[in-house]
Design brief:
The chain contains twelve helices and 21 strands. A hairpin with an 8-residue loop joins strand 17 and strand 18. The chain has 492 residues and is α/β, with parallel strands linked by helices. The termini are far apart.
């Protein structure tokens, strides 16, 4: 069978992006006149903490914050050389700040670990997508993985080559499939047998659409039950264990308009161990060998998906990307040698691990409320811009920025403004005991699955996204206004 590889990617810029100057931008003071303040006295009881020489809100753990993070004057913080206080004053809050160099550096880490002569690195757009991110990904030599006609069209409108795009999803709409075929995407990942005939009917006569089959290898991995996708008890893919994957291979090979170029698997998200990937890879190589034995067809590609975990709190583990690359490339070579197969071209699909650590969310405190032994700090965002704590129980560590404090630390619960008791952004986190309305809180590791999962709950409008680099901030995605929300409602 002849195959057409993914289009060659341009040579990335030399590794190592320019470093920010390190000189913090001057921070504007933010202490609005007439602001209602919570009492500065600390409550007694089990929630009170003794003062410490280096409070947690004065730390900048580099496994959580962007590498460009620096302390600024008066308790401020800079990211990419830009003051978070000044950014909040200029663009308003809630605000998402994205460090461009951090994104590019993480792309380069992947390209170094998975060299282009051996592998493709495909950015998972579902983590976060904008036209600027599309450009960064293209310039750094990565491909793009999309899950809808909307993501696909945004990428194309930003100049991303269609033949470097992969489309998948468990329930692709007719519009998703027809748009992908019309634009000539490089790969379509088939997730169910019903998609096979549906896609084949869309392919113009005399042409062939390259496809892959998503296989469920029977490996459980992931940070939460809701993001474990490698076992048979969830909605994605075709089972290796019950023969569904092999049946799909048989059917695709019988379709003249479809060209089966490889197998795909994605075992879960927020995975911090290499072991599950190795286990899944071995099973996928076994299926490649059985396909060769049954059909005489050697599939030239193997996509091992993404799900690479990051740290959300200081000291948490993150997946070691160079170690992952070294191990699975060695396992792939050894497994193929044992099965007497040529080594297929490898693909990986990182999303969160590229964009997550580059993002910082900035909120303004609206109220501080003490009930019994608990202190609640309510901010001007919440589950409409970050539903992940409510969905998965994700734990963040906000930090106060914009003013210095020597107050003793207290354990507090940071909550959003929405009408849900579950609208909690961070539970049991240490903040200065004198935190009050008007203060700013910054949340690290906020680049992935925040705005991409944002909703219109309570019609508060989604926050803007600002890119920072070399001391400059520029708007990427504007704030959703009340007028935007009104215009969508066309009924009377």
């Amino acid at each position: 069978m002849t195959t057409t590889p993914l289009a060659p990617v341009p040579t990335p810029a030399p590794a190592g992006s320019p470093s920010p100057s390190g000189a913090p931008a001057p921070a504007g003071s933010h202490d609005p006149a007439g602001e209602v303040r919570a009492p500065a006295t600390s409550p007694t009881g089990p929630s009170a903490l003794a003062p410490c020489a280096s409070p947690v809100w004065q730390a900048y753990p580099q496994d959580v914050w962007p590498a460009s993070t620096r302390p600024g004057p008066h308790g401020d913080m800079t990211v990419g050389g830009v003051s978070l206080t000044e950014a909040a004053d200029r663009f308003g809050t809630p605000l998402y700040v994205l460090d461009e160099h951090e994104v590019r550096d993480r792309c380069r880490t992947y390209r170094a670990a998975f060299p282009p002569e051996e592998a493709d690195v495909v950015y998972a757009a579902k983590a976060f997508l904008s036209r600027a991110v599309v450009r960064w990904i293209r310039e750094e030599g990565l491909g793009l993985d999309v899950c809808s006609a909307g993501e696909l069209l945004l990428a194309i409108s930003a100049g991303f080559p269609a033949d470097r795009i992969v489309l998948h999803g468990n329930a692709k709409s007719p519009e998703d499939l027809s748009t992908a075929v019309r634009l000539g995407v490089g790969r379509i990942v088939l997730d169910s047998t019903s998609e096979i005939a549906r896609l084949a009917a869309l392919v113009p006569h005399g042409t062939r659409q390259p496809v892959m089959i998503r296989v469920v290898p029977g490996i459980s991995a992931g940070g939460h039950a809701s993001v474990r996708t490698g076992t048979d008890d969830q909605k994605f893919g075709l089972s290796l264990m019950d023969g569904s994957a092999q049946h799909a291979i048989d059917r695709v090979l019988g379709q003249p308009g479809l060209e089966l170029v490889g197998l795909h698997c994605h075992i879960g998200s927020q995975i911090t161990s290499i072991t599950p990937y190795v286990s899944a890879l071995r099973r996928m190589v076994g299926l490649l060998a059985r396909t060769r034995d049954k059909h005489g067809v050697v599939l030239p590609e193997l996509d091992m998906g993404g799900g690479h975990g990051i740290a959300y709190r200081a000291g948490e583990p993150a997946l070691d990307i160079p170690a992952l690359a070294s191990r699975i490339r060695a396992e792939l070579a050894a497994g193929c040698a044992r099965a007497m197969l040529p080594v297929p071209r490898l693909t990986v699909e990182p999303g969160r691990a590229v964009i997550g650590p580059a993002g910082v969310a900035v909120y303004r405190v609206l109220a501080v409320k003490r009930t019994g032994t608990r202190t609640f700090v309510a901010v001007d965002g919440g589950m409409s811009d970050n539903p992940r704590p409510a969905l998965y129980g994700v734990r963040y560590v906000p930090r106060m920025v914009g003013r210095a404090s020597t107050a003793p630390g207290l354990m507090m619960t940071v909550v959003g403004r929405h009408c849900e008791a579950g609208d909690v952004l961070a539970d049991a986190v240490e903040l200065p005991g004198d935190v009050h309305p008007g203060d700013l809180l910054a949340v690290p590791a906020a680049g992935a699955y925040h705005l991409s999962m944002a909703s219109g709950y309570n019609l508060v409008g989604r926050p803007p996204v600002v890119a920072v680099s070399e001391g400059t901030a520029r708007l990427l995605v504007r704030r959703e206004s009340l007028d935007d929300l009104r215009r969508r409602d066309v009924g009377v």
